[in-house]
Amino acid sequence: MERLTTNKSVADMSMIELAHNSCYADDERNARYRDYEMEMDARDFARNLMVTLAKDELPVDDAEFDEEILDNLTIDPFSDVRGLIALFYRNMWSMADLREKLKRYEDAEEQGLLLRLPCGIGSDVYIIPSKVNCELNILNLHPENNKVYHQKVALITFTEKGWYMECDKDREYATDRILPEKMYKETWFLSQEEAEAKLKEMEEKDGR
Predict the structure, then answer these.
(1) Residues 52, 82 contacting (CB under 8 angstroms)
(2) What Rg, from alpha-carbon coordinates, does the chain have?
(3) Using an 8 Å Cβ cutoff, are 126 and 189 in contact?
(4) Exposed e or buried b for every residue in 96-113, given b needs 16+ CB within 10 A?
(5) Which of 82, 128, 179, 196 could potentially form a cystine with 188 if both were Cys, beta carbons 3.0 to 4.6 Å apart?
(6) Cβ burial, residue 45 (10 Å; 0-12/13-18/19+)
(7) Which element (helix H / strand E) includes 32?
(8) H or E stretch including 86?
């Protein structure tokens, strides 16, 4: 997936890139606005708007500024420009916060540090025998063992070769059964319907 945040200078950003990165947070977590012509603190942007559009002034002190903005957010933005400026400022700092959080995720993904799992601890999983075990159950006259087993994820372990899961009942009874990443949707599933469909597919292929 193409990333939305960027570390490029404004001059090197496309219009789309600038749209996603025009608001950002500085090292002190202050929201800032930038475009091809200017860059400034979001509070100063709102102060300038207030002077230009409302012929009024917002407080210079940041704490007092925030209090007045909070009050102005109760004003109808369609009837009073002060409400519109407060809404615009709120959107700037919220965009800055969202941009910084998304950037951390996208940086981690590029560095191979972000792993997407299909489920988490406590998730329901539905397990069926492997193809080999399914055939052995038939040969050993225990076809009743070819069924769907419901458990909950109790542990997820990460290794250099991937990740695997252990379930509550397997850990309780020390069965040593694990659910490896590569067998997802082969022997374990997140819905009973998928598990039953896969088991039926194996049985049909074996002519049963």
Answers:
(1) no
(2) 28
(3) yes
(4) beebbeebeebeeeeeee
(5) 179
(6) buried
(7) strand 31-34
(8) helix 81-110
User: Is the separation of the CB atoms in 63 and 77 below 8 Å?
Assistant: no
DSSP 8-class letter at 171? H
User: From the CB of residue 63, how many other CB atoms can be counted at a distance below 10 Å?
Assistant: 8
Angle, helices 62-72/81-110, rounded to nearest 10 degrees: 110
- What is the pairing mode between strands 124-127 and 149-159? antiparallel
Kind of pairing between the strands at 188-189 and 124-127: antiparallel
Contact 118, 184 (CB under 8 A): yes
Tell me the pLDDT tens digit for each residue of 99-148. Answer: 999 999 999 999 988 888 999 999 999 999 998 998 888 888 888 889 99
SS3 assignment, position 62: helix
